[in-house]
Design a protein that fits this description.
The structure is a single chain. Helix 6 (131-145) crosses helix 8. This protein has a 9-stranded antiparallel sheet. Helix content is 30%, strand content 27%. It is an alpha+beta fold.
Length: 726
């Protein structure tokens, strides 16, 4: 009898425990339904833009397609689906026989079910609780539960369908007949936890929908823990220590899987808030840092940098992905109150196509071979690949022309629209910033494995305001040293030792963008205006080109040409699921012939100070061993030492790199602040010497130099910058 009180207590706590779980499950359901029936995008102009840019929800990119799912559709769209549904629950305009891998047409049936549920349950809907909407939803759901065709892409069956259907079922749970409820559960049961990275998160999310539907606390907790387990910094697939994102190997996937990851994680953070399933503070901090220091860093004027979009170079991709990021920023503002104002300011900036001053500065994504500079005037990025980083991929017949996307591509943006939907009419042999053969052979098709540049001496460094990207090109028999030096919004580009083992003539493209009108060329006191013609650059003198809000200074001794012409192409050539209808646009292109194996040019936003900015630059070294640039107005020096060597900083001061590395030397009080990195990510220490006697190093009196040995960051921070003050 003595054990009875303990048994009673055990039973009491068991029931109490289950009551707490039951209450948390109800809170999760409530959070989920409120999330889906209250749209962030309520402004009519934004709603109209989303409908247009997603082509009524037919968008191929899942992250951008979610924009269409997150808005409340106009009543006339829902009414049309109501009156056009066939007696069996299908719609006549959907091809239910399609089995394609990318744009699987039957999935639109489920999208319509979702919006019918949303319109029925959303208080702000003009069709709130209308019986005709409920009737059409149930008929359509019954049709789908008996539908047995599937896509050739496993993603739709295991992830894509249930990702949309799950929330719809939870919104309509109280209105489902028992037989239809059972069939719907069979559909949800097709998703099981597995895979890796973002696919793993998607699958676990689908399991959560089923667990909430069944009130299964064990399955809910298991799936929730799987999602949470993916919130950490890693050197594998996921959020990198520099807040870039990798998937499909060491490949930058900011706008593809990385954006989907952000949307999913912040969504679940909102669904689980105020329950025992809530994300921990550390996890929220990582997600917030990823949004602010990672994704938000590659958005400008409400558009995402095309270099950050992975293989998904689709229609309206730059604007669509930026708008999708707004949802993630808005969601996390509800669970990270300390930084809520920063998130909401970024949201406003993107929605209004403005500039988020909180993200100004220069950032080096050393894990992904990308350098970004954002100022009040402009956005500049450089991206390449190395033996450590995959450049890009081609899969699902997407990114069919991206062969050179990882060869030192630069993005130069002021209004953000410079490259918007340019991909069909681009000459993909002349991407901005790349060096490639001038013979315009057919571009080889990449695969899922993508490609990696062959030379490991490729890396980036930034000190907050300035940055360096060093790219040792080694691909298809083409080698050379390409240095990119960023001083805020001034970009200096140097190329040396460019050669082809196959004897190809090489060329470097400065920029290729939409023709914006009023292209002027100044040289030897003369001014030419280019509209529909080709201008041969005068090699005997420097040349200043102004176009589209940018000034380009091309140093003397270089042959090249600027041309403005109408270009033609089709979206089908970019991604096979598009039709073959022809697109055209007038394109501005500036190309340098690398007949001497080198090039040198500068770029900065057009304004009254641009010429002064060019004159402030002094190129200290242009060789295969060392490329170095000095800003004379502040004596800032940036240098790439591909090999050990000596650099004269001025008449009285020498700098010796004992080990190859990247260096930014900033005058500081009576000495220097030196920021450096090892682009090969292999060194234990960086060793350099500088004229004069300084504390902290080993003084060499006979040479009047001080030697410094600086420990390099290791492990996940290898390749990142480290600073010392002399």
């Amino acid at each position: 009898m003595g054990g009875c009180p303990y048994k009673i207590l055990s039973v009491f706590f068991f029931f109490l425990f289950n009551m707490v779980y039951a209450e948390d499950i109800q809170i999760c359901k409530k959070n989920l339904i409120e999330w889906h029936t209250n749209s962030l995008y309520e402004d009519e102009k934004i709603v109209s833009e989303i409908i247009q840019l997603t082509d009524n929800g037919s968008y191929i990119d899942q992250s951008v397609k979610e924009l269409y799912l997150n808005i409340l559709l106009p009543c006339d769209t829902i009414e049309h689906w109501v009156v056009s549904q066939l007696p069996d629950g299908s719609w006549p305009d959907i091809n239910y026989e399609d089995r394609s891998a990318s744009l699987w047409l039957p999935s639109f049936h489920v999208i319509r079910l979702f919006h019918l549920a949303k319109s029925y349950c959303a208080v702000k809907s003009g069709l709130y609780r209308h019986d005709k909407v409920l009737k059409v939803f149930l008929s359509g759901l019954n049709y789908w539960c008996n539908y047995d065709n599937c896509s050739t892409n496993w993603w739709f069956t295991d992830i894509g369908i249930n990702k949309i259907l799950g929330p719809a079922l939870l919104m309509m749970e109280d209105h489902l007949p028992e037989d239809l409820r059972s069939k719907a559960l069979e559909q949800l049961s097709r998703s099981r936890i597995g895979k890796t990275g973002q696919n793993k998160v998607w699958l676990a999310g689908n399991v959560i929908y089923k667990a909430l539907f069944e009130k299964n606390k064990d399955e809910l907790e298991l799936a929730r823990n799987v999602i949470v387990s993916e919130i950490y910094l890693t050197m594998g697939e996921g959020i990198q220590p520099d807040y870039s994102y990798h998937l499909h190997g060491p490949q930058l996937q900011f706008g593809n899987y990385g954006l989907a990851y952000a949307l999913n994680m912040t969504y679940w953070a909102c669904i689980f808030r105020d329950t025992k399933f809530s994300f921990a503070e550390k996890q929220i901090r990582i997600l917030g840092d990823y949004l602010l220091k990672g994704l938000n860093g590659v958005v400008w004027n409400g558009r995402m940098d095309f270099s950050a979009c992975g293989r998904q170079l689709f229609k309206n991709v730059q604007r669509g992905k930026a708008l999708a990021l707004v949802q993630a920023l808005y969601d996390i503002s509800h669970v990270d109150c300390m930084r809520a104002c920063r998130y909401k300011e970024s949201c406003r900036s993107i929605l209004t196509e403005g500039r988020d001053c909180d993200s100004f500065g220069t950032c080096a994504f050393y894990r992904s071979d990308m350098l970004v500079s954002k100022t009040s005037k402009a956005y500049i990025s450089v991206r390449f690949s190395s033996p450590r980083v995959i450049a890009t991929e081609t899969g699902n017949k997407e990114n069919l022309k991206g062969y050179y996307l990882g060869d030192g591509v630069t993005a130069l943006m002021r209004d953000g629209k410079e490259y918007e939907n340019i991909f069909p009419v681009w000459d993909w042999h002349c991407l901005p910033g790349i060096t490639a053969p001038a013979n315009y052979r057919d571009l080889p098709l990449l695969g899922w494995e993508g490609y990696r540049n062959g030379n490991a001496f490729s890396g980036v460094i930034a000190d907050g305001e300035n940055g360096i990207a060093a790219f040792s090109l080694d691909r298809d028999g083409i080698t050379g040293k390409k240095g990119y030096f960023l001083f805020g919004d001034l970009l200096v580009c140097l190329g040396n030792g460019l050669r082809s083992s196959k004897g190809d003539s090489l060329q470097t493209t400065i920029n290729q963008t939409y023709y914006a009108g009023n292209c002027t060329i100044n040289f030897e006191g003369k001014t030419s205006v280019l509209k529909d013609d080709i201008f041969e650059l005068p090699p005997e003198s420097s040349c200043l080109v102004s176009h589209g809000g940018w000034d380009y200074c091309i140093l003397p001794g270089q042959k090249g040409r600027i041309f403005v012409k109408k270009s033609f192409g089709s979206w089908h050539e970019i991604a096979a699921f598009y039709d073959m209808s022809e697109q055209s646009a007038k394109i501005f292109t500036c190309v340098l012939d690398n007949h001497q194996g080198c090039y040198a040019y500068m770029v900065t936003p057009s304004d009254k100070s641009s010429r002064k900015a060019f004159l402030s630059v002094d190129i200290l070294s242009r060789t295969e061993e060392c490329q170095a640039v000095k800003q004379k107005n502040n004596n800032l020096i940036s240098a790439i030492f591909y090999k050990p060597g000596l650099l004269h900083l001025d008449a009285y001061c020498d700098f010796i790199a004992v080990t190859p590395a990247l260096f930014i030397l900033r005058p500081y009080k009576d000495g220097w602040k030196i920021t450096m990195s090892d682009p090969m990510q292999q060194l234990k220490t960086i060793v350099f010497e500088i004229s004069g006697e300084y504390s902290g190093g080993v003084y060499i009196p006979e040479e009047n130099r001080t030697r410094f040995t600086v420990s390099c960051p290791q492990g996940k921070y290898a390749g990142s910058g480290i600073s010392v003050t002399l």
